[in-house]
Amino acid sequence: DDPPEKEPARISMEDRLRHALQRNEFRLEYLPRVKADDGRIVGADACLLWAPAAGAPVNISEWISLAEETGLIIPIGEWLMHHACADIRKLQVAGGPPITVGLNICSAQFAAGSLHSLVKQAIADAGIDASSLELAFSENLLMQNPAESVDILNELKQCGSLLTANNFGVGYSSLMYLQRFHLNRLKIDASFISGIGSNPDDGIVARSIISLGHSFALKVTAEGVCCDDQIAFLRANGCDEMEGTGVGNPMPFEQLHLLVQKNTPLLAD
User: What is the pLDDT of residues 29-81, one digit of tens each?
Assistant: First the structure.
């Protein structure tokens, strides 16, 4: 059978996406990550925005799957990597408190076989301390082929960058592989944070992940933190860091830079 024809809207979106890089329509914002105990910024996650010159920004949920299916995510990911490293360089030159910048790595980038060389080149081109770059992978992605993931992560570890498991708790990581991945951080999935205070099971899961991470000498970050009750619970249970709307929204690099320089807590003690 002949393959089904693409829908006109999809064709249009794909064409626009192909030209977005050439037209410099992508930009980065940064979601701040703070220490749980004092609320000071210790990191930020790079958030990719597609903002065409004509029209409103395109929600990432409308195009990220298409970018992965067409392979366009590879050059877009390269753009993101180099621009984030350039921003890290600006932070390091300014001499403020050191922070780490996290980039989410998707399955297509992970499987492409060129991630190690991309990371190594971006770090060298920007002239940054490699340990300020944090590469984040979903737990489910790492567990699709855990033996292969170990090899890829070992390569990336040699670059000097930090490694993080995102959305932790929703996958099926075995303790054996958790140890072999040589991660630096676990991020508790936001679904387990949202019910804290109303669903006792979520509190139990969050507390267990904090304990598990610390037993492997890993930092633990809570994703999706949005209210004071969650902040109080995470502090009481020794979570290292937090991010989410209750901490701070994604912001332009210039705003992040200013906040880092001032070293002002985003949360009250």
Answer: 999 999 999 999 999 999 999 998 888 889 999 999 999 999 999 999 999 99
Alpha helices of 63-173 — where are they, by DSSP H?
64-70, 73-94, 107-111, 115-126, 139-144, 146-159
Rg over alpha carbons for the chain, rounded to the nearest Å, is: 19
**Strand-strand pairing, 133-138 and 100-104:** parallel
Q: Using the 8-state DSSP alphabet, how is residue 57 labeled?
A: P
Q: Is 60 exceeded by the pLDDT of residue 194?
A: yes
pLDDT 10s digits, 90-100 = 999 998 899 99
Distance between CA 39 and CA 231 in Å, rounded? 10
Written as one string, the DSSP assignment of 196-224 is: TTT-HHHHHHHHHHHHHHHHTT-EEEESS
SS3 86: helix
- Give, in order, the Cα–Cα distances in Å from 163 to each of 70, 104, 223, 231, 252: 27, 10, 16, 24, 24
Say which DSSP state 22 is in: T
More confident residue, 54 or 259: 259
Sole residue written with tokens 């390269």: 78
Sort 112 into a burial class: Cβ within 10 Å, 0-12 / 13-18 / 19+: middle
